């Protein structure tokens, strides 16, 4: 990978901050970039000197991938005050979640387009036998032209899949690949089999995608009413609970507000209005969304789609040119403009 001298990068606004890293906007040779800075010397102690850090593993993954729907990696750097940094393209619009859960009125065409963008990127990753393991609306970023790109490969790993580096769990050279059992990812996108500590496959990414599509459809967290991880384990993983397909608030920006008196509680909506009317979309298209989501987050991983099937499923529906509107004019903004506030605080 290319090592970029830190003197070439001017660090600017803080875009996001986590327990072990922060992301800042940077200017590198006249180009706006995002700089992910490791704030701890090591995320986890090494068992031995040959063990790779999470950042090193992330670089190993990023070096293998190049796709229109995956965040582009430029190189790494070392700053005097930071032990390690990843330099990627700057995504001016911030996270997907920032748009689907806030004030933006997202057209159905854009929801389809974003779902297909994510599925296309994931189809590419799985084709290279890479499992993301932390796919979420927080880890999908939007470019200035509203293209969705998958980001944050810190928890990703390669797996021995069909047509991959090995067969029956073996890598090339006969080394056996350790089965994946550790619960890695974030609620509510974490697949039930992963949460329960069972062996899991690349199909955990398909479950996570189903949750992202539910967010695109309804504008909310599907498990907002579940108060704790213990409740999640019981309700979602063991009892196979899945939420209804209606928005949390019938007066939300995704709903035809004039149809609902303000006194109506969201729990009363299903008995009064069909969900496609609540969501403001055609019945046939709603059924397509519903069937896609149900198939993706089925409790049986073998029942879930492959991403190649999902891309085919979404292709006819995403042929129309998308449009997006909000309370302010956003279409005139250029990526990296100093006045663009959308990316601030939304990268992590």
From TrEMBL:
CDD domains the record matches: STKc_MAP3K-like
Biased amino acid composition, Basic and acidic residues: 330-348
Positions contributing to ATP binding: 47
Keyword set, alphabetical order: ATP-binding, Kinase, Nucleotide-binding, Transferase
Record's compositionally biased regions (Low complexity): 316-329
Record domain Protein kinase: where: 9-316
UniProt-listed Pfam families: PK_Tyr_Ser-Thr
Descriptive protein name: Protein kinase domain-containing protein
Organism, as annotated: Paramoeba aestuarina
């Amino acid at each position: 990978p290319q090592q970029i001298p830190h003197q070439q990068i001017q660090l600017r606004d803080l875009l996001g901050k986590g327990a072990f890293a922060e992301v800042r906007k940077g200017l590198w040779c006249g180009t706006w970039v995002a700089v992910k800075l490791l704030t701890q010397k090591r995320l986890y102690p090494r068992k031995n000197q040959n063990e790779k850090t999470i950042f090193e593993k992330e670089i190993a993954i990023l070096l293998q991938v190049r796709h229109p729907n995956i965040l582009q990696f430029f190189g790494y750097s070392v700053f005097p005050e930071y032990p390690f940094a990843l330099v990627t393209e700057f995504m001016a619009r911030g996270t997907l979640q920032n748009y689907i859960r806030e004030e933006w009125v997202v057209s159905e065409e854009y929801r389809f387009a974003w779902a297909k963008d994510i599925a296309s990127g994931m189809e590419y990753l799985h084709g290279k036998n890479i499992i993301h393991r932390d796919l979420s609306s927080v880890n999908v970023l939007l470019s200035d032209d509203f293209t969705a790109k998958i980001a944050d490969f810190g928890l990703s790993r390669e797996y021995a899949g069909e047509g991959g580096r090995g067969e029956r769990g073996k890598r090339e050279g006969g080394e056996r690949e350790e089965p994946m059992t550790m619960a890695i990812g974030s609620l509510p996108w974490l697949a039930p089999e992963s949460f329960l500590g069972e062996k899991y496959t690349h199909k955990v990414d398909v479950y996570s995608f189903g949750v992202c599509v539910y967010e695109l459809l309804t504008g909310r967290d599907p498990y907002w009413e579940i108060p704790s991880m213990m409740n999640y384990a019981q309700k979602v993983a063991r009892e196979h609970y899945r939420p209804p397909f209606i928005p949390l608030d019938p007066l939300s920006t995704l709903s035809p507000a004039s149809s609902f008196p303000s006194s109506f509680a969201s729990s009363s909506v299903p008995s009064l209005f069909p969900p496609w009317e609540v969501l403001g979309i055609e019945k046939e298209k709603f059924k397509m969304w519903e069937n896609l989501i149900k198939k993706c987050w089925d409790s049986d991983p073998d029942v879930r789609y492959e991403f190649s099937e999902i891309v085919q499923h979404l292709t006819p529906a995403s042929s129309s040119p998308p449009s997006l509107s909000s309370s302010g004019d956003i279409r005139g903004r250029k990526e990296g403009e100093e006045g663009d506030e959308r990316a601030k605080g939304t990268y992590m």
